[in-house]
Amino acid sequence: MEELQQPLPERLDLFTCIQCGKCTGGCPVSIKSPLNIRRVIRESTVREDLHIFFDRLEIWDCTTCSTCAIRCPRGLRPVDAIIGLREMMVEEGRIEKTIIDALDGAYKYGNPWGRAKNKRAEWAQDLEIPNALEMDPGQVLYFVCCAASYDPRVQVVAKSLVTVLRAAEVSFGILGNKEVCCGSEIRRMGEVGLFEMLMEENMKNFTKIEPKTIVTTSPHCMNALKNEYEGLDSEVLHYSQFVWRLIEEGKLSFNTEVPMKVTYHDPCYLGKQNGVFDEPRDVLKSIPGIELIEFGRCRENSLCCEGGGGRMWMEGTGIGKRLSEVRVEDALEMGVEAIITACPFCLLTLEDAVKTTGNEEKIKVIDLMELASMGLGVTPEVE
Amino acid sequence: MEKIAVLVEHRQNEVRDITFEMLGKAHQLLEGGGEVIALFLGDVSQKGLLDQITPHAHRTVAYLDSNLKDFEPLRYQAAFTNIFENVDCQLILMGQTAFGMDFAPAIAAKWKIPFTTDVVDIEASEELHAIRQMYSGKVNAKVSLKPGEKMLCTVRAGAFPAEDIPTVSGELQEITGAIEGDFSARTFVEYLEAAVGDVDITQADIIVSVGRGIKDADNIPIAQELADALGGVVACSRPVADKKWLPKERQVGTSGKTVKPKVYIALGISGAFQHQAGMKGANTIIAVNKDPKAPIFSIAHYGIVDDLFKVVPALTEKVKELRG
Questions:
Q1: Which CATH number does the domain housing residue A216 bear?
Q2: What percentage of chain A exceeds 90 in pLDDT?
Q3: Which residue is closest to B277 within chain A, CA to CA?
Q4: B248 touches A: beta carbon within 8 Å
Q5: Do A259 and A243 share a domain, yes or no?
């Protein structure tokens, strides 16, 4: 926490910024929002009082996709300046009610929707998944996290992953009601202290069971556990990586043809931030009948869906067309039947965009694990 | 009970309703006997406010000082000492307001007075009981005291009527004397006015909410008409606010408002989890949707699987008919 007391520009080395503008040039929301990340960096180094940012709603437009950090020739992380400003706003209580509710929910109930703690594992009640806390050390832990635990749409993804893991005869457990939010979104909304609390709570259980591998539903959780959790020795994998390993090791193969022309949308937290581009595509291609056509903007250039960085709870300026709608229209032009993705937030935002653009009859949004489940002859359905 | 003290609450030179609500309740508890004592802290320039108070209290104890115009917790706590030493009572009422929630705990701690927060009713037959709600209003708790103890209550705004308060011939007792101490740790800066919104959907008892099923901005009046007939307001799901058919302030859901009306009528709303999170606390949820598989039906108490353009006009007509 001592680091935090340093002023933002010093802490993030922002004085070394050469103002080249590659960050803004690649920023997906700068197409539509007044957010100019290059300018934010400049201003934060010359302004004496950073309170001037507090009334700028566009600070909340940032989805923390981190394109700016990939493109920066100086190796800076402009996105962290945004998160730093949000930290200051949270610290001084200058935040919207929707964010307060999300933080409050995560604090009291361990999930940003404030849903009951004892209903966290309800999605799995008929699946007889072992309690990870009673397993021997060195096993596989499935870290479900909030969206997959509570959102009926994303629960289908969790169930599909269970189908796939069982087909490969993987023995694994879940933490059930003892699991709390990974804190990734909480941190990006600027509540570092709460993030640390959630981390400690999860770490208590991780230390107890010492899993060999932790598999996550969401790339956001994977990123947090892998790159931000201190002292975690376990290997952390997104399900796409784990499932591809199972296929490579010959433990899993798909027996049902799924004849479908699809495209794959790279989630920012999986691709841009963790370099996982190939594994989800490899899984896709190993399902018989799947024809993969790439988006023009794919891999490092993938267009963000705007679901991350706290955007599920805070809309920012709300100016301009949603990028998820752009994505759906691009996909329609390519003539695919479905957009496949591997992140709960991408799934929700893209599916919403299919509805708001009125294309429900023409295109579907399917999670990679739902597709994999179909490749095993099990058609997943929302209850 | 013989004596009840009520702390007057004022903001921006206006006596707030909660003050009269508490004075009214104090009179009711004393049933014509005993003494209602109003406690006033304020600036010399605010002396005029006392004209509204003195007619409703047997005694008004006022401490006027040039630095007490706006609420400052530390300075007010010190000033309160000056008046409270002159007051003997069994029950002290303060508002369960931003002011009272800050002030009352400090007073309770300092004077070691048993303290009950967010009280919705008070009974004073043989013993003194404060009623407060628990578990989001599902349970009422009755808090009682050992005989002979005082009690400090913060009272929920709106729990008691602010009208028809008995008038008594009250005396005014002004207290003077300096307050000393360093109050700089927390000082009054400014009042920030809440932005003037269009309609505050979080305060509505009846909400008619529209989703994508409304198809076009031109169709919003159909929902508005039903809302008007019911005495409610129109809200919407995110896609409707996205398309600017209704202002963002009307959006219900995780990135919009959380509402808990008595009745929530969802028209053409599929009910994604993010929308449900903003309205599932409604007492009664009525959903109209063409799609029987729409998730909204999983939480609706009443559901109509049909075209909203057929259902809503019929509903509006029936409501108008019943309401005469």
A1: 3.40.50
A2: 90
A3: A113
A4: yes
A5: no
